[in-house]
Amino acid sequence: MDVSSSVPTSLLTITEIENAKPKAEKYEMLDGGGLSLLVLPTGTKL
After folding, report:
1. Residue 38: how many CA atoms within 13 Å on its side-chain side?
2. How far, in Å, CA of 15 to CA of 29, rounded?
3. pTM greater than 0.90 (yes/no)
């Protein structure tokens, strides 16, 4: 079994999370490893 195929290829970095800016509609950033960041129009990050 190839273990490397189960490793996410694109992880969210601290910089990407800090630089996430609010938009008119809420949006979600995904890292491929199960982590997601929801950014609300108010700028709140969940």
Report:
1. 3
2. 13
3. no
Residue 39's CB is within 10 A of a number of other CB atoms, namely 19
Q: Where are the domains of the chain?
A: 3-39
- For the four alpha carbons of 12, 13, 17 and 20, in that order, the dihedral sign comes to negative
Could you read off the pLDDT tens digit of each residue along the chain, which spans 46 residues?
455 555 556 889 999 999 999 999 999 999 988 899 999 999 999 9
Place of tokens 């992880």: 11
Alpha-carbon distance values, 10 to 23, 24, 25, 29, 43 (Å): 22, 25, 24, 11, 23
